[in-house]
Amino acid sequence: MxxxxxxxxxxxxxxxKGITLRLLSENWNVAVIDIDKKSLDKLExxxxxxxFHGDVSIEKDVKIFYENVKEKFGRLDLIVNNAAIGGxxxxxxxxxxxxxxxxxxxxxxxxxxxxxxxxxxLENPGKGVIVNISSTRAIMSEPGNxxxxxxxxxxxxxxxxxxxxLGPNIRVNAIxxxxxxxxxxxIAEKEHQQHLVGRAGKISDITELVLFLADENKSGFITGANxxxxxxxxxxxxxx
Length: 240
Description:
By secondary structure, the protein is of the alpha/beta class. The chain has one domain (5-235): NAD(P)-binding Rossmann-like Domain (Rossmann fold).
């Protein structure tokens, strides 16, 4: 019961997997909900890891997930909302069904994970942290990402609203990653050099920030914030 517990949505691959493994390496107990069963099954089995196959946009799935978390670990200290889908499509071809699916997963899923995880967090240990993974596409765009950008911008609004509603016991912050290379992804050197730091992002750039935000001693005065992690791309002027 004294061991800290994290719940991570979309925690079976890419950034989510990186967060899962990093927290496990720091001796956290971790519960992962992911719709990708194949990736979920590939996570190494451990007494410290709860794997749950479910859809964060479905209220029943999220409720059952947290019932499992309470049964196995008895408490909750950290929620990392990470699950997302892309849905990039030409605006004039984008259907209402496609739009709603992106919003349901990327935004409503964050609401559901926070809404039904918060009572367990407040019950035991009574304090906690929520970290919402947004995107730099919340504040900048390109053609064909209306649904995705809208969902990611909504996350920023949800973040500061939750920070107001849940403080002082629960701190809520957002991280907006830029170009983060996925597992085994490689890009050309000229693409790295687009960034002010001379490289694209690594999954560890995000995982280390999650650890920082989860640590009350290091980040206890930070809530309602959006931290952009993009190698300076949103501060770079580009003329064509």
